[in-house]
Write a structure and sequence with these properties.
The chain has helices at 2-10, 22-36, 47-55, 70-76, 106-113, 123-128, 149-161, 163-168, 186-196, 206-211, 231-238, 274-289, 291-296, 304-314; strands at 12-17, 39-44, 61-64, 78-92, 103-104, 140-144, 181-184, 200-205, 215-216, 218-220, 226-227, 261-269, 300-301. It is elongated. The two termini are 32 Å apart. The chain is an alpha/beta fold. α5 packs across α7.
């Protein structure tokens, strides 16, 4: 009976964290279960929650979009590796506007989220969208209510392109927003709130915008060219990344291609245990057979060279 219980436990692995990567992990888990009979349970509770749960060993792996520093990993006896690349997009609720029709640049988006721009008829928005007739309507800000890697990615980008935003709000999984904001839990919560609040703007991982049929905003890239989010523009942003750094903690923001791009990461303990081995088997399966599923959800699979480097570290 004890042996049977141990074997059953080994067929199930538990993870928690990033809502950014949740749609992909869910799809990979379904395929893995069909092919191997093994179960992967994943709770999309936000990056801060994922880090907390792996730190307390409540789960077999944690997931975050804000990579943990290599010195912290070393202290905790943990190992970190990326799994895929995706993009963060601004989504809006404005009558008569289609997805991708409104264009913003980083400076203007940062000024909106710092409260400096608070009406859709603001001249800075009109300058970028001369053919759109914006309503005289207050901009309602929607943000993450939980500690979020998506927030860390989004605020890091805004801090890179707008010094005033960096000085007043800064970057991180949790920041102190100014003025009135509405908070949603997870990417799904932000998506739901933007749908409910007319005149609102929020930020979510692109697959949530696509699946939820939200009105996303196009951006000006660092060259001043209008660009839309998709797997090609995310891949362009990641193309020249230097992955050969501790913990592979790459920063893909404000590169060529989509300007708000990030990798999402998994954290496990370095000690070899049956559960950690099962986690590695699952993600190795995903690296071998999961690229099509990633692309279908508008994530970008890791380059083969990066996958091989991860496998070498696993060994």
């Amino acid at each position: 009976l004890l042996l049977a219980t141990t074997l059953t436990h080994a067929q199930t692995i538990n993870g928690a964290g990033s809502t950014f990567g949740a749609p992909l992990y869910s799809k990979w888990s379904e395929s893995y279960n069909r092919e191997t009979g093994k179960q992967v349970n994943y709770q999309a509770i936000g990056s801060s929650g994922g880090i907390k749960q792996i730190d307390t060993k409540t789960v077999d792996f944690g997931a975050t979009d804000d990579p943990v520093k290599s010195e912290d990993l070393k202290t905790k006896g943990q190992h970190q590796f990326p799994t895929a690349i995706g993009g963060v997009v601004a989504v809006i609720n404005l009558p008569g506007v289609e997805a991708g029709q409104v264009v913003l640049d980083g400076q203007t988006l940062a000024n909106i989220y710092s409260g400096k721009i608070n009406n859709w008829k603001d001249p800075a928005i009109k300058k970028l969208n001369s053919k759109i007739s914006f309503p005289d309507m207050k901009i309602s800000l929607v943000v993450r209510a939980d500690g979020s890697g998506t927030t860390a990615v989004f605020t890091d980008y805004l801090s890179q392109v707008n010094k005033e935003f960096k000085d007043s709000i800064g970057s991180g999984k949790v920041v102190k927003w100014t003025g009135d904001v509405a908070g949603g839990k997870g990417n799904a919560g932000v998506s739901a709130m933007v749908k409910q609040i007319q005149g609102s703007i929020g930020y979510v991982e692109y697959s949530f915008a696509k699946q939820g049929k939200l009105t996303y905003v196009s951006m000006l890239d660092k060259k001043g060219k209008t660009i839309k989010p998709d797997d090609d523009t995310f891949a362009e942003a990641a193309h020249s990344a230097n992955w050969n750094i501790p913990g592979m903690a790459v920063n893909l923001n404000n590169q060529n291609g989509w300007p708000i791009t990030a990798a999402t990461f998994i954290i496990v303990y370095e000690a070899t245990t049956p559960q950690t081995k099962e986690v590695i088997k699952f993600f190795d399966y995903a690296f071998i057979k999961g690229d099509k599923e990633a692309l279908a959800l508008d994530y970008v699979p890791l380059p083969e060279k990066v996958k091989n480097s991860i496998r070498a570290e696993w060994r």
